[in-house]
Amino acid sequence: MLFYEPLFLFLFGPAVYLIYLALGEVRLRRAIILFAASVIFYAWSEPVFIFLVFASVALDLYVARKIAALLEDKTRKLWLALGVVANLAILVYYKYTGFLALNLDALLKALTLPGINIPQIALPIGVSFIVFEKITYLVDVYRGVTAPARAPLLYGLYVFFFPKLLAGPIIKYHDIARQFDEMPHADVDDFVIGFSRFMLGVVKKLLFADTLASGADLIFSRDVGSLGFAQAWAGVLFFTFQIYFDFSGYSDMAIGLARMFGFRLLENFNMPYVATSITDFWRRWHISLTSWIREYLYFPLGGNRRGEARTYLNLWICFFASGVWHGAAWTYIAWGAYNGVFLVLDRLFLVKRLERLPDWCANIVTMIVVIVGWTFFRATSVPQAGALLALMANPWAQASAPLAIPQEYVVVALIAAAICVAQRLSLYVKDFDWGSAAQRYAMASNSALSLLFLAALAKGLADPFKPFIYFRF
Q: Is 174 a catalytic residue?
């Protein structure tokens, strides 16, 4: 069930919201309504996997209470390790078994040994996000940052909360535990602000991301040998804007829906394409994942407390792990390793060099690094990524076969680029006093957003379905 499908927009979403407002005057009742709605929402797409999630939720609750009750740190660590390993086992089985088997089969055949059967295991939607959030609960309890969930219902709601369930943001337990304990009331302001944010996400996804996806697919599905310099750059730029509008669009929908019910989720994007270094980029892009990696991987590895060499290694390991988390493919692994290298270079000298440049120049350098990374991320194989990058580095490369790129893809890409540039310009006018124009500006922007929202829905009904990119993770 997708947020912008008619089933959600005109039946499930309104029904849940009206029931929540009409019957949710009691805090417990609000929690029950949201939990039941969230379970139905997930079961609609994953009717089998949901039972495994229920079982792992029960294990988390048991392990967390054991950790909180015990005094001996060694025993507490053993229980924590049990809970973390059990959650990671779910992720490894569903996400990496096929990948590992495929590579083992290739290795055996290269050694002229008999191959093995490759298991076909369906990847449950949102499994990576679910597992990471469940781990935060156990670690938070172990660290004493938070107490075990006051009731199984509240922890179940944390895991299944449908606005963020399928593709984040990754919500750390200590960031939202109090909200689930208090179960805030929703008011008119929550609805207006939340629904406006939700509409923005739908517009980003359907009008921008899906159009740009068609452009990227057109290039990446072709034989690289038939492409030239311009086509290679066009395909990668289409994807560069597609992934931003797709993923930030989902985050907008999730944050907006949560706000409509009275919950405040943390932001997941902060104008990442105005970054002036790779370090700055990762402070702005997929903020919930970056902060998760910092708190639950980088710090446990030692952070920057064990000398410079170990700090550089820890940084690289963290972003190598980020690549592995994103997908069971060598392209994602290469993307993570590549970003890890540039984060280390940032810490060594690159940030200082970029700080000497004008912001716009540092931004261009940063975006070139990011775009090269997105080439690995989108490519179907590492050799395809390498071939595309070779074309992008050769301005004299000519296409061997004609390829007509529809004009609408180019227009949407230019508008997307203009929006990102406008975000940079907004940094310089943020202190401007709009005075009495503020109300008129808000009314005009909301009216325009409503019209774009209707146009996006019309496009979504007319065009073929395109899932969110991060559903595969």
A: no
